[in-house]
Amino acid sequence: MLMKAIDTLHVSAVGPDNIQPGQTFEINEGDGAILHERGLAVPVEGGSVEGDPEPAPTPKARAK
User: Fold this and answer.
1) What is the CB-side half-sphere exposure of residue 8 using CA atoms within 13 A?
2) C-alpha distance from residue 53 to each of 19, 30, 49, 50 (Å)
3) Residue 23 pLDDT greater than 90, yes or no
4) DSSP characters for 16-48?
5) What pLDDT was estimated at residue 63?
6) Which terminus of the chain, N or C, has less C-beta within 10 A?
7) How much is the pTM?
8) What residues contact 20, with CB distance under 8 A and at least 6 apart?
9) Which carries the bigger pLDDT value, residue 25 or residue 53?
10) What is the pLDDT of residues 3-13, one digit of tens each?
11) How far is CA 41 from CA 4, 15, 55, 58, in A?
């Protein structure tokens, strides 16, 4: 799931560097839920979520 940091975080599963406030990052749903419950990050609307199918592409109109 895609999350946005509210505070400076260090999540070793995401990478070796700190995650700064306002920065987005990808994390599994379980860990993302914990960060959200603790008020450290919020889910990003429209972010990728594991298990959800990709939206179908919009068909293009044909030129006549």
Assistant:
1) 2
2) 27, 19, 9, 8
3) yes
4) SSPBPTT-EEE--HHHHHHHHHTTSEEEPTT--
5) 67
6) C
7) 0.65
8) 5, 8
9) 25
10) 999 999 998 88
11) 5, 16, 25, 32
